Amino acid sequence: MHSASVLPRRSLSAALFPHAFLVISALFLAACSEAVPDTQPLPPVVQVETVRFAPDAVERSYAGIVVARYEADQAFRLGGKITERLVDVGDRVAAGDVLARLDTVDLALQVGSAEAEFAAATAAAAQAAADLDRARRLLEQNNMPTAEFEHRRLALEEANGRLARAEQQLALARNQEGYATLRASAAGIVTGVSAEAGQVVAVGQPIVSIAELDELEVEVAIPEAAVAGLEAASASVTVWANGEARHRATLRELAPEADPAARTFTARFALDNADVRLGMTATLSLRTGTGDEVARLPLAALLDQGTGPSVFVVAANDTLELRPVDLVRYAASSVVLSGGIADGDRVVTLGVNRLSPGASVRTVETPILQASR
Questions:
Q1: At what angle do helices 146-179 and 105-140 cross, to 10 degrees?
Q2: What confidence tens digit (pLDDT) does each residue in 304-339 have?
Q3: What is the three-class DSSP state of 112?
Q4: Domain 47-55+292-365 carries which CATH code?
Q5: Residue 116 and residue 10: Cα distance in Å, rounded?
């Protein structure tokens, strides 16, 4: 009885197992037979910048110092020992004021010697003139040979030549004595002293430096990228000691070559009636541009395929349009455009050489370019 009841349960499991296997297999095949959906690639991401038109004016500032246009070293025109120096740094002098003096003992002796030579030459010339006058009277009376008369005439010419030379030597000696007094060549302020009383100096050795105050300038160092168009820039100067007061300035001098170490060009701007002092720290402001409405974009946004400059503009449906633009000029890292695009357009600013018109893109906005670019 017991064995008979077990056999039917085993037969039931064996009978059900093939059916379960078939059901699982069918489900697996159904899952595998479902169609896999196609995945479309996303449009590429591009960096864009919104166009903003603004007046074409850029203002840059540079630090500088107030200097004199004319500053000259005053020196003796002969060597000697300084007996006195009458000015110090900061003194104001007028043209012709005495700055220093040399020892004049030897110079006075030279003047005395030249005066004696001049007196002797004067007497000799007078004697020769009297001899010639007597010879002329004797010649007229046929009491002197013609050759003797010519001898007397030549002697007078020689005496007159020696007199002229002695006169010039006397003038030179007196000039040398005058050179022992150093006088200011122009009105100004003493900016440097290079010698003291008791010092023996050589010819041309600087003694005093004088800066003229009639024409003052601001000296600044201009970077290489800002030199172009410097002549057309509108310049003004503010001096830190005078607050916000602005003074008109005009470019007067620009160095022909850059400083080998700093790679900057030294420029000097003349000030118009500015109440400033030498050595003051000043700020030079340069404003360039025409004032016309222009847009500034990064240099990488410009594309030129041989038909002129153009840019990629992202349309409202996020597709690319290649538009020709009107180029005003190139800047250090940007371009200035005047037409071809409108205010509010989104322009691609990176990787434009890999794009094509009509392509769909996704955009990433970048900050608006500053005017200093």
A1: 160
A2: 988 899 999 999 899 999 999 999 888 778 888 988
A3: helix
A4: 2.40.420.20
A5: 163
Q: Is 40 helix (H, G, I), strand (E, B) or coil?
A: coil
CB atoms under 10 Å from CB of 122, counted, come to 15
162-198 burial, b if ≥16 CB within 10 A, otherwise e?
A: bbeebeebbeebeebbebbebebbbebbbbebebeee
Residue 281 in 3-state DSSP?
strand
Collapsing DSSP to helix, strand or coil, 268 comes out as strand
What 20-28 contacts at long range (C-beta under 8 Å, 24+ apart), as own/partner pairs, is none
Q: Look at residue 149 and give its three-state secondary structure.
A: helix
pLDDT tens readout for residues 4-48: 444 444 444 444 445 544 445 545 545 554 544 556 788 889 999
The CA distance from 155 to 58, in Å, is 83
Straight-line distance from the first to the last Cα atom of the chain, in angstroms, rounded to the nearest whole number: 105
Pick the CATH number of 59-68+214-288 from 2.130.10.10, 2.40.30.170, 3.40.50.2000, 3.40.50.300: 2.40.30.170
Residue 225 tokens, joined: 């990228």
Residues forming a β-bridge with 296 = 336
Domain 105-179, what fold? Helix Hairpins (1.10.287)
Domain ranges in the chain are 47-55+292-365, 59-68+214-288, 105-179
CB-CB contact of 333 with 284 (8 Å): no
Q: Provide, for the chain, the percentages of residues in helix, strand and coil under a 3-state DSSP scheme, each rounded to the nearest 5.
A: 30, 35, 35
- pLDDT tens sequence across 167-225: 999 999 999 999 999 999 999 999 999 999 999 999 999 999 999 988 999 999 999 88
Question: Smallest Cα–Cα separation from 321: which of 290, 352, 296?
Answer: 352
Identify the pLDDT of residue 367: 60
CA distance 365 to 358: 20
Which residue in this structure is represented by tokens 């009885």? 1
